[in-house]
Design brief:
Helix content is 48%, strand content 12%. The protein is α/β, with parallel strands linked by helices. It has 2 domains: 15-121 and 194-206 and 278-354, Rossmann fold (3-Layer(aba) Sandwich), CATH 3.40.50; 130-188, Orthogonal Bundle (Histone, subunit A). The strands form 3 sheets. The protein has a 7-stranded parallel β-sheet with strand order 3-2-4-1-5-11-6, with helices on both faces. It is globular.
Length: 356
């Protein structure tokens, strides 16, 4: 499928973002659209920034990077921390360089916190303190979440009980700022984006996305995930990047805590939980942030994480989506009128139709 050669009506300063859950086909769509838009891809992924985490993170291959320049990959070794403020600073410098060369920036990735921080800027939070984080390393995540519930109940309510990274950051903020992290965030409130953006959200019915996750898990194991996890641990120890989905289960197997026959299922189950969290974000946040949503009231199919066969199960929420092929998406982008202000527009797309 070759990219269109017709000019597009997007403003040059407008960001294009390809988003969605893990295993939804973001990289494939982003690479195609980058060719259409004369863009370079800026990764927005909290694991892809680490060198050596290739197979387990689903990082784009070298052959894919040769088609379109990719940025914000392989910035640190796994034992070198990179926080949100570091990421935003380096990404903004990278995007400025891309645009100075007359290219467009196309953001692609699944890390919603990094994306929101790029679009809206950061709240004035205290910088991290490694000594605090080291002191909490041996504390179970459930106990840290309970401590957060005591110090900042609102933050604890918003952060999933297993999201250790965000729990630790909220506790750290409470300790260093001497006030709840949620109170500081409320002062920021993501009121006005720094620039306009068009966010393309890839949606799949739950059963089909889970099938893709299962297939990708098998492919990762066949490609050498266990060997990669073992090698990284020998070189860098069990730092935070190696506690992410896929690597965590691989290390449990290497420790003898998981049977080989159960390994693929454990990885797939953890990946499904991650995908569900990601789509919960995309279901709720765009409306809460006041983005313009498409489809609005058009007659379209309703699918999503809980959908099946184009319909949602009783009592479950799905997504109203635009039924575009890749060619139809290009045509829609050409017909679209660029926004006059720095607003954000979100298009929910049927990924299965797009990638057919």
């Amino acid at each position: 499928m070759g990219p269109s050669t017709k000019p597009l009506t997007l403003k040059r300063s407008e960001l294009v973002v390809v988003a969605g859950p893990t295993a939804s086909g973001k990289s494939e769509v982003a690479i195609h659209l980058a060719g259409v838009l004369d863009a370079e891809i800026v990764g927005v992924d909290s694991v892809h920034v680490y060198r050596g985490l290739e197979i387990g993170s689903g990082k784009v291959s070298l052959s894919q990077r040769q088609k379109i320049p990719h940025h914000m990959l392989d910035l640190r070794d796994p034992d070198e921390p990179l926080n949100v403020a570091d990421f935003v600073s380096e990404a903004e410098a990278c995007m400025a360089d891309i645009e100075a060369r007359g290219k467009r920036c196309l953001l692609c990735g699944g890390s919603s916190l990094y994306l929101k921080s790029l679009l809206y800027g950061l709240a004035d939070l205290p910088r991290g303190q490694p000594e605090l984080r080291q002191a909490w390393e041996a504390v179970p995540t459930s106990e840290l979440h309970a401590a957060l519930a005591q110090q900042d109940p609102l933050a604890a309510e918003r952060i999933h009980i297993n999201d250790r990274k965000r729990i630790v950051r909220a506790l750290e903020t409470c300790r260093l700022a001497h006030r709840p992290a949620s109170e500081i965030q409320a002062g920021h409130a993501y009121r006005k984006p720094l620039r306009s953006a068009l966010v393309l959200i890839l949606c799949w019915p739950r059963d089909r996305l889970y099938r893709r996750i299962d297939e990708r898990t098998e492919q990762m194991l066949e490609s050498g995930l266990l060997e990669e996890a073992r090698d990284l641990t020998l070189r860098f120890g069990r730092k935070a990047p190696l506690q992410t989905v896929g690597y965590k289960q691989a290390l449990l197997y290497l420790d003898g805590a998981i049977e080989k026959s159960a390994l693929a299922g454990e990885i797939s189950m953890a990946t499904r939980r991650l995908a569900k969290q990601q789509m919960t974000f995309w279901r709720n946040q765009p409306r809460r942030l006041g983005w313009v949503i498409r489809p609005g009231f058009e007659q379209v199919e309703e699918i999503g994480m809980e959908g099946f066969g184009g319909h949602t199960s009783k009592g479950r929420k799905g997504f109203r989506v635009l039924e575009y092929s890749m060619a139809a998406l290009e045509e829609a982008l050409m017909r679209r009128s660029a926004p006059d202000d720095d607003g954000i527009e979100a298009w929910y797309l049927n990924a299965e139709a797009l990638l057919a």
